[in-house]
Amino acid sequence: xxxxxxxxxxxxxxxxxxxxxxxxxxxxxxxxxxxxxxxxxxxxxxxxxxxxxxxxxxxxxxxxxxxxxxxxxxxxxxxxxxxx
Length: 84
Known about the structure:
Layout: H1 2-26, H2 34-38, H3 40-61, H4 64-83
Helix pairs in contact: 1-3
């Protein structure tokens, strides 16, 4: 269930993107614009398309829970890096 929540947030970005950018503008970040926020979805979809074949190969060699856990760890590291 947590994987669905994590992956589903990619498609939620279209609805919350303007609110997130206005929040960061309120904090004083002038580079937070709607133009920058629009780029998030295509970048995420391209990364997903590139990572899916790697995941399929990993599933042939490792247990699915291990592959899922590794993918979630990589995703969470990405979130923490984006927070910085």
